[in-house]
Design a protein that fits this description.
With 177 residues, this protein is mainly α. The chain is 68% helix and 0% strand.
Amino acid sequence: MSMNAILIIYKIVASVLFKNKDRHVYPGSLSIKLLDLAAEYGYLEVLKWMHYNNIGECSVEAMNKSAENGFLKVVEWLHLNRSEGSSTEALDNASKNGHLSVVKWLHFNRTEGCTVKAIDKAAYFRFIAVIEFLHFNRTEGCSCDAFDGASFNNQINVLDWLKKNRTEGFSSKHLLQ
């Protein structure tokens, strides 16, 4: 293992200890957070090393957070080498951050799916390519929050697209403002 990888592990451990300084951290909970944090920040080589050396477990947060942050190679590795899986948060938050390649991969390779928040969040942050992919490939749809969020952020092109392709419309809350 390289010195750089050791420093990364040290930073992850220090981060976990700092975040939990007011409560006792048990070794089992520390090791779970270490794997989740390595995945969240895209440290694939560190994640592999911890996995192959049986250092702790990880949770669905590993895949959820690596997807949210756009680390496709980490998501793929977790899928092939770990059994914890993910939740709908993986696709929802990858959509929110515009990670189209991760959104596509999760759609074609995982079964957790997403919620209406995927399109809602993509609309708020102006990721039309993500909105289009989800619209044409998923059945969850969106809520009026997609229209409201796009309107709130003056995303005219997103609003035009939603108006032409979706039927949810604005919320009454938005119309009163």
